[in-house]
Each structure stands twice: as C-alpha cells, then as structure tokens.
Amino acid sequence: MATYMYNEHDVNQVKNMQKKIKKKKQKRRRCFVLIVLIIIACIIFMTGNASKVKKISVSGCHLTNQENIIEHISIKSKETYFFKVNKNQVKKEIEQMLFIKKATVKKDLLGNVKITVQENNAMLYSYINNILYIVDEDGVMEKDTKQEKLSYVQRYPQAINFDEKHLKQFIKEYKQLPSVIKNQISSIVFEPNDKDQTKCKLELDDGKIFYVRIEDMARQLTSTNYYLVTQKYPENKYYDFLGKNVYVYN
User: What is the distance between the alpha carbons of residues 112 and 194, in angstroms, rounded to a whole number?
Assistant: First the structure.
C-alpha cells in the first residue's frame, strides 16, 4: 500500500471543504436576507401610495367638465393600483360620455395618467317632464338637470312633445341623416295619431315642413330623395313622407 506524505505546501482538504461549506451557508443567508428585503419592499410598495395612481389630468375640454370625466371613469387617484390601469377600458368609458368624440389615455412611469379628449357638437335637445335632455352628434343622450348647457344647445334643433322611449328611437334614425338635411332642421315635433303612432314633423329653416315616421326616416330622407323632391317642387311647403309615395302640397 502506497503512503502519501503531506508537506507544508500541500492543501489541507478538510479545511478547504469547511471553507466551501461556510461560503455556501453565507451565500444562502445573503439570498434569504435579500428575498426577505424584497418581500418587505413589495409589501410596503403595495400598501403605500407609491403603487397607486398619483395624478389624473384631462385636456381638450370645452363643453365637458374635467372633474366630471375624472369622476366618471373607473380609475381613481390615490386609490387605483397603477399596474391595474386598463387604458382601453378608460378610453371606452370616456367615449361613452356626452360631447366626447375621441379620447386618448397615456400613463407614465411616475404613476400619472394623462387623458386627452376630442369633443363633438350637440345634435338636438328636448324637454321631458321639465328636464333638459341633450343629445350629441354620436347620439349620446344625457340629462342636464341643472340646465348648465341650455344657452349652448339652444342654437340646435329642439325635439318637442317626445317621451324618453320615442326620443331614443328618433335619435337612432336621426343621426343617420345626411348633414345637409340635419343642418336645415330648426325643430322637430312628435305628432302621433291613431294612424301614424310615430309621426314626426320636421320644420326646416326655409319654412318647409317634412312629415315622417321615425322608423322610416333614415331610409326615406337620403340626400338623393331630399334633392329630387325639393328641386322638383321648390315652391311647396309641405312634404309628406308617411307612405310609399311622397305627397307635396301647400
């Protein structure tokens, strides 16, 4: 059996192994401490304001109110976690509001949410049970209980004698009309009778009067039909679109 003699230059394998074990333990301790610190930091971050939306700003408002938009959306400053902000959802929520045509939503790394809106105009207004209803170009209808926008909407056609159900039905058809026709309408009167329960009278700026049924209005009052009838009978006042044919008289 061979005998190996250590000298002073040989490495002590036992001590070397002990050093390696000690280093592994120290490394594990450091990793454990680091993980604990990360967990503590995450808890502090999640429970504090640092992880939440810090500020919501809105620009581009003229007809709409910034505070109303901020109140309407689902995210809230100092309450909503920043990583949970769904920009597409917020965009949809804003674009469902009155006078909002388009919205863009951005967020930065500092926890700020920036909203920019593009507005559209009113289309008509109405009084139902003494409450002011305003409708914008997209057909969005909203109550203005304080009549804050009355002076603005008075330049647009007023829908008279409507209830809420028929006004919604009318809006769906009316917004499909060509702009050349809508721009000439000064007022709309709901005049149902036993024969025509959805009859409406459209009063134009030049004194002409169109009679239409709500459900047929978009189909009958195309720009082509409008021009053909008004150019063929320019001197007549009344244009009856209630049947399959158009009747014109004074």
Answer: 59
